[in-house]
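Homework help board

Subject: predicted structure for assignment chain

Our instructor gave us this sequence and asked us to write out the predicted structure in token form, then describe one feature. I got the tokens but I'm not sure how to describe them. Can anyone check?
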Amino acid sequence: MNPITMKLQADRLIEEALREDITSEDVSTNAVMPEYRKGKVQLLCKQDGVICGLDVFLRTFRLLDPETEAEFFVRDGDEVKKGQLLAEMTGDIRVLLSGERVALNFLQRMSGVATYARATAKLLEGTKTRLLDTRKTTPNMRVFEKYAVRVGGGYNHRYNLSDGVLLKDNHIGAAGGIAAAVKAAKAYAPFVRKIEIEVETLDQLKEALDAGADIVMLDNMPPEDMAEAVKLAAGRAETECSGNVTKENIARLVSLGVDYISSGALTHSAPILDVSLKNLHPLD
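My token output:
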């Protein structure tokens, strides 16, 4: 992960996770290891997948003790196998014990998202269609999960509400219609911002195109309507299809020729990749 992003965004979130896990002290660790002692522990993979979040994993320990060291045998984006040795950590045994669960939580979650994204993105290989994530992320985990999507081979949609204009059904209802919503957005948003609007029917699509939308999101349309929508939008707007897209059903959309397919499942339904810290032992 970019060191600037780590410093400005990730550090605070990692610290909050550590504070959630250690409100005053780690009673178990302090009971068995009351004083400093240097130790080493192995990071092992327990199932096949794509590893992601190694910088965040190490940063978790270093926020507790900057002297913690890691020797990594893989890099973010590598495909890993069950039983593989991923890294060896060296440092204060108290830190290795107290930071273990939080560090693994980040690494497992990010690796799970990257693994799911990699499997889904492979289904789009050979087409012009790009796989996008959404804002359906775990609270306070967005920076980590969206990074993991990119590591897995997907692309990021807007990061947050300040990042771009996306007019959905309730925005359209509030504005009084598609044409009114697009007009209001064009008047308000900086000229460098594209205007994307959600449509559910071909009639709505035509209205959005006539209003000058830059991107149309084809939401939960039947595949035959999506195919027609791509033809109607050609040369006038980019197309994105969305609506309950998962790794299991994305194949039905591959041949439509849309520019983008967005899937909330990349972040809200990806299972973790199981990894663990094992074989902790003192070095002196």
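Reply (TA_rk): Your tokens look well-formed. For the description, you could write something like this. The two ends are 33 Å apart (CA to CA). That's the kind of observation they're looking for.
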